[in-house]
Amino acid sequence: MDGRSPCVEPEPSRFAMPDASVADAGADLIAVGADLAPGTLLAAYRAGLFPMPVEPRKRRSQIAWYSPDPRAIIPLDGFHAGRSLRRAVPRFECSFNRSFGAVVRACGEPDRDGFWISDAVIAAYEELFELGWAESVEVWLGDDLVGGVYGVRIGQFFAGESMFHLATDASKVALLHLVQGLRAEGVQLFDVQWLTPHLASLGAVEVTRARYFELLHSCG
Predict the structure, then answer these.
(1) Which of 23, 145, 169, 195 falls 20 to 30 Å from 70 in CA-CA distance?
(2) If you ran DSSP here, which 8-state letter would residue 5 be given?
(3) Could you tell me the CA-to-CA distances from 76 to 24, 98, 102, 140, 217 in Å, in that order?
(4) CB 136 within 8 A of CB 164
(5) Which residues pair with 150 in a beta bridge?
């Protein structure tokens, strides 16, 4: 997508990722520990894991690694753009990878429900972005950033991390533009971690962990 830097492979992680494919059915939490170095994050996503701080409001919180069962994905040919969303699109301007850090920080506002994006997480994903492995979509009203979504892109796989909106439908518009961009570039798997009513209304579905790993491995 526009503004995406060439990917630079970081130093390998000093940690070995657990094999989540053999975890107990229905057990989402797989491990605790390790760090948020770029090599660790990429190894985790390639192993079907993603991180969240155990206590995000603590400066030195441990990192927990998750592989939900079931796992939510958005089939790229099954995104639901309803009439109200299509009507909302012309109100906004969208960009790709123009203000990645601003999107992550907006997603990490401490007063948001389910706050988990700590300063350490923000710094880690900004570093991934600088290395070319993370992407964002920004939604604007004039000069104001009013919505966005960010995640990690590895080849034909995209892991959506978080999104935000300050104007009605702005996050939906961001997601629509992201899906269109991923589809145009041949991405095969769009992972959104856990199913929510909001994501389900846009076409997200759940798959078993076993099926998720089949899809992940097919991305190469």
Answers:
(1) 169
(2) P
(3) 29, 23, 26, 24, 17
(4) no
(5) 136, 162
| Beta strands in 54-156, from DSSP E residues, in sequence order | 63-66, 71-73, 93-96, 134-141, 144-154
Mean pLDDT of the chain: 94
Is the Cβ–Cβ distance between 173 and 147 less than 8 Å? yes
Q: Which of these, 203, 2, 202, 173, lies nearest to 90 by C-alpha position? A: 173
Instruction: Say if pTM beats, i.e. exceeds, 0.70.
Output: yes
Instruction: Note the pLDDT tens digit of each residue in 144-167.
Output: 999 999 999 999 999 999 999 999
What are 181's two structure tokens?
């961009």
Residue 153 bridge partners (DSSP)? 158
β 71-73/50-53 pair status = unpaired
User: Can the peptide bond before residue 70 be classed as cis, meaning omega within 30 degrees of 0?
Assistant: yes
State the DSSP string of 79-144: ----HHHHHHGGG-EEEESSSHHHHHHHHT-TTSTT----HHHHHHHHHHHHTT-EEEEEEEETTE
Q: For residues 130-135, give the mean pLDDT.
A: 97
* Cβ atoms 167, 161 nearer than 8 A: no
Distance of CA 204 to the CA centre of its chain: 14
Cα distances (angstroms) measured from residue 71 to each of 99, 172, 220? 29, 20, 19
Task: Specify the DSSP element, H or E, that contains 215.
Answer: helix 209-218
Q: Count of residues for the chain?
A: 220
Q: CA 115: distance to chain centroid?
A: 15
Phi/psi for 30 (5° steps) reads -105, -40
Write the CB contacts of 143 (distance below 8 Å, at least 6 apart in sequence). Answer: none
